[in-house]
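Hello,

Our lab assistant flagged a job as stuck in the queue for most of the afternoon. It eventually completed. Since we weren't sure the result was trustworthy after the delay, we are filing this so someone can double-check. Below is the sequence as submitted and the structure that was eventually returned. Let us know if re-running is recommended.
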Amino acid sequence: MPSRAAAIVVAVSTLIVIVLLLPPPGASGIRSHPSPARDFPDAMRRAAVLEARDTPDVNPNCRTRLLTHGDRTPDALVLIHGLTNCPRQFELLATRFHARGWNVIVARIPHHGLADRMTEDLGQLDAAELARFTDELVDIGAGLGEHVTIAGLSLGGTAAAWAGQERRELHHAVAIAPMFGVSRVPRAFTGLLTRALLTFPDRFVWWDSKARERLAGPPQVYPRFSTRAIGEILRLGMAVRADAGRRAPAAGTLSMVSVGGDPAVDNASSAEIVSRWKRHGARVDTYEFPRALRLNHDLVDPEQFGARIDVVYPELERILSP
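-- returned structure --
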């Protein structure tokens, strides 16, 4: 037994050394390539391309949502859902803004929303792919409205922050509980964690190891997440952090929304991004839902366990409105 324990210690130590010696995760390929829609018809054509990606293997409740008024409106809203969820997460909030006269699109992130909730396709998620997808949404939004707001939760929040950093077509970018770091992992170790997640073999982890595939809450949510996907989200976040340190964000205004006591993401990492934006003179607002509310990390989905949309939605509507 002592020799086995020693072998384990040596193996673990070797792996740690390998990770430490690897080059830091880079932003190679994570670049914006703007191509904004010329007008409303052009935006509709591009949206149709997104909708065509919702093949029969996609859950019918998870298809891309496009809510319009038949022409370009003064305000347009682009919504990006969170990890392992799908556009249904934002459906109710989207309809509220559409009722106020906005054109709204909620697109399905690649590898999400499949009818097979036990799929391992999520492990194919890639930071550069997320950047291209987000660019595509901003391009469509430019044709849907005169003033374009983008907002996202968690994974979608990281993507919204990236868009806010990169895209001047945005009037407002709102990152809701974005993933720039993982809860209970010190910010200084985020780079090391990212390297490890991108280096070691992908694993699928149950959101709830007891409930497993019987996970409570929204029925469309995958009951497992991919460790590789987490690494790619963090890599996109590192690209935001690096660019925010070099130059001002391109969006007109930005908002960072956090959840007090968030069990999933590191709020200090989000605060660091805000600090970097403000150093460049950017217009940035922050809001944190009080810890006393005991909100879930997913504070948007009405079907989520412990949902409090009666408290959350009025604040989000205030923050999202121009």
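-- support follow-up --
The delay was a queue issue, not a problem with the job. The result is valid. The radius of gyration is 20 Å. The beta strands are 65-67, 73-80, 103-107, 145-153, 170-176, 204-206, 224-226, 253-259, 284-289.
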